[in-house]
Design brief:
three-stranded antiparallel β-sheet; mainly alpha; about 65% helix; about 210 residues; 2 domains
Length: about 210
């Protein structure tokens, strides 16, 4: 009975929880070396095959995160130094910057086939979040509610800013509403707890 977007949001959250639980085991020195050697052997046999993507699926790890591990290991070997996060992020966003053409193609395959991680997913999440803020603004205007938006609050020098502060609070189902924060994701118990700690308590204390 639920919409596709709701189910996708639930799936995405559950998948991210699983990745966080198993993240450490994929980042041991032994695991990194194994993945890198398997990548090298795989592309030696067939450079056109989706070696990194298949490896990520086999070990049940997010393709974009697998691409990051192998790219970091490749750059470490090439530069004889630990590459900066900025450089790695830039190459993941635009694989054409990767000096090795085969690896560039492998990384690209991983980022376009990852449903929950990577630069494309980040762009989509950002766009959906912005879209929901726009919809919320339209609803507030429709209801003739007076509000101050986040960008206006930032311009006034506020450090912690919800999406909207209502200039005249309203009552909803017996609760007084002073501010609204839009989250374009499924609100399960653990995400509510995380948002409370990271954002909501600071808004509650201020407003």
């Amino acid at each position: 009975s639920q919409s596709q977007s709701t189910l996708l949001s639930i799936f995405s959250q559950e998948y991210q929880k699983q990745i966080k639980r198993t993240h450490a085991k994929h980042h041991t020195a032994e695991a990194i070396e194994t993945y890198y050697q398997r990548y090298l052997n795989g592309v030696m046999k067939n450079a056109a095959a989706p070696v990194l993507l298949e490896l990520a699926n086999e070990v049940d790890f997010a393709p974009s995160l697998m691409a990051r591990i192998v790219l970091e290991r490749y750059l470490q070997e090439k530069e004889q130094a630990i590459p900066s996060k900025t450089l790695i992020n830039s190459m993941l966003r635009d694989p054409s910057q990767i000096p090795d053409g085969v690896l560039a193609n492998q990384v690209y395959q991983c980022t376009v086939n990852d449903c929950c991680y990577g630069p494309l997913v980040d762009c989509i999440k950002h766009a959906i979040g912005h879209e929901h803020e726009v919809l919320l603004r339209e609803m507030l205007l429709e209801k003739n509610l007076s509000f101050i938006a986040e960008d206006q609050l930032r311009a006034k020098g506020y450090d912690k800013t919800p999406d909207f502060i209502l200039e005249v609070p309203v009552a909803v189902e017996g609760h007084i509403i002073h501010w609204i924060e839009s989250k374009a994701s499924f609100g399960d118990e653990s995400s509510h707890q995380a948002y409370l700690q990271d954002q909501f308590w600071s808004y509650w204390n201020r407003y």
